[in-house]
Design a protein that fits this description.
Helix content is about 25%, strand content about 40%. With about 450 residues, it is an alpha+beta fold. It starts with a helix and ends with a strand. The relative contact order is 0.14.
Length: about 450
């Protein structure tokens, strides 16, 4: 990657060519190496490296942005030429906008050299481990393994300069035999934290247990959700219900549920860059420090996030959640962590007379944003629980549920937690436990 000194050189060019324009500049550099495999063989090995510069200009309370992938002197000069023209025809904001003063940000450790430099041969060996496990059971394996690094630089005309570098790794694996499948995923900043053998064994075990599924009638069941399913549900909650702008504009379920008790005392959800299972992001795109931020505390929906521009507009405090330069007023958490409970998965199952174990949600969508009604189907391993034991595989089911209603029906949260690779967050991990939920509504069988 280019490194901090390179971006200090970019800072000098920005200062030279900005003229009378106040500027706020953000650079994201990314190097990603990816190995994809299918039918027990690697079919793609690739590496991409790119960097993009976004410059936000401010003049006379008018704001405009330009983006470029040219990080040389001429590219920056040309970007300011365009920015000046755009600012001339931009409307002044309805609220007074100013760039923030420099902040002190936390020093999180997020870089692992082994992960950043993990070679194609090393990735192939890791894939070989998973594929070999599947082949031993006459199964086919599909998935990907990616490693790389990301660097961020923030620079402004009022003296900001922040630089941060992180390593990233993520994987997913589907094993399949005769239409029966199992799925696992993982994400983190250290590749050594990924136990490929253990994950492959779990996916294989799920697929083997999925044979000869029975059909159960639609209705309300006690369910145990895997960390994959919990992570999927919590991400949708965070995106739809936690955006301060949507709350202020009365377009969010937080209008009804913020400040309300939505779950049991042991339900706690945070945006927590200090968690050792996540990939920490120490500051947002306006340089605000990112400390642990409680979203649901002891079952109460405590607070929503505010980007820096939304905080100015609505008279709030920014919470360190500006992560999109194109929609500056929107905000969202990026280090989602669901706290562990006080029981185990084994005890959850033993304590369930009749229920359904769900390995994974698939194709989840929002039906009613104001009530956060989520629809989708089960996939890659759904099982009947009878008399405290997992007994039979169940055909996939479709569901519709109100997130807040479901949280009130949670009665057990596991001590075990996993770092799930979240596609909605560009494979950043969501740290999630198992949950037991009563009255989970299946509306029909699924044909997938």
């Amino acid at each position: 990657m280019r490194g901090e000194e390179f971006y200090r050189g970019i800072f000098r060019y920005l200062s030279i060519y900005s003229g009378e324009i106040e500027f706020w500049a953000v650079v994201e550099g990314k190097r990603k190496s990816l190995t994809r495999f299918a039918n027990n063989g690697i079919h793609q090995n690739m590496m991409t490296e790119r960097a993009g510069l976004a410059i936000l200009g401010l003049k006379g309370n008018r704001v405009a942005m330009v983006k470029t992938d040219r990080l040389d002197e001429e590219g920056i000069r040309a970007s300011f030429d365009v920015l000046k023209e755009v600012l001339e025809v931009s409307r002044a904001l309805e609220y007074e906008f100013r760039f923030p003063s420099p902040q002190v940000v936390p020093s999180y450790s997020a870089y692992d050299l082994e992960t950043a430099e993990f070679s194609p041969i090393q990735r192939a060996e890791a894939v070989k481990t998973m594929v070999g496990k599947a082949s031993e059971r006459s199964m086919k394996a599909f998935g990907h393994l990616s490693t790389g690094e990301i660097e961020w630089a923030i620079m402004s005309s009022n003296g900001h300069f922040l630089y941060f570098q992180e390593s990233t790794a993520s994987m997913n694996l589907v094993v399949e035999k005769e239409g029966n499948s199992g799925y696992v995923s993982w994400s983190g900043m250290k590749i050594k934290d990924c136990d490929f053998e253990k994950l492959a064994d779990r996916a294989i075990e799920t697929a083997l247990k999925s044979s000869a599924p029975v059909e159960i009638p639609p209705g309300r069941y006690t369910v145990i959700l895997s960390p994959e399913a919990v992570a999927d549900m919590v991400v949708l909650f965070a995106w739809v219900a936690c955006n301060g702008k949507s709350f202020e504009e009365k377009r969010s379920p937080a209008v009804k549920y913020l400040g309300q008790k939505i779950g049991i005392d042991s339900l706690n959800i945070m945006d927590d860059p200090s968690c050792d299972q996540t990939i920490p992001v120490p500051f947002d795109l306006f340089g605000f420090p990112r400390e642990p931020f409680s979203i649901v505390e002891n079952g109460v929906f405590k607070q929503v996030t505010y980007s820096y521009p939304a905080a100015i507009k609505f008279g709030k405090q920014p919470t360190g959640h500006t992560f999109n330069m194109e929609t500056l007023e929107d905000s969202f958490p990026v280090n989602l962590v669901v706290f562990a409970g006080d029981t185990t998965l084994e005890d959850m199952i033993k304590d369930t007379d009749r229920g359904v174990y769900i390995s994974r949600f698939h194709y989840t969508n929002i039906v009613n944003p104001m009530e956060l009604v989520i629809t989708g189907m089960t996939r890659d391993g759904t099982f009947l629980i009878e008399n405290g034991e997992i007994t039979r595989s169940v055909k996939n089911m479709r569901f519709n549920f109100n997130f807040f209603e479901m949280m009130k029906n949670v009665d057990m949260i596991s001590r075990e937690r996993e770092a799930i690779a979240c596609e909605h967050l560009d494979n950043l991990p969501v740290v999630a436990p198992y949950m037991r939920i009563h009255e989970f509504p299946f509306i029909s069988a699924s044909d997938h």
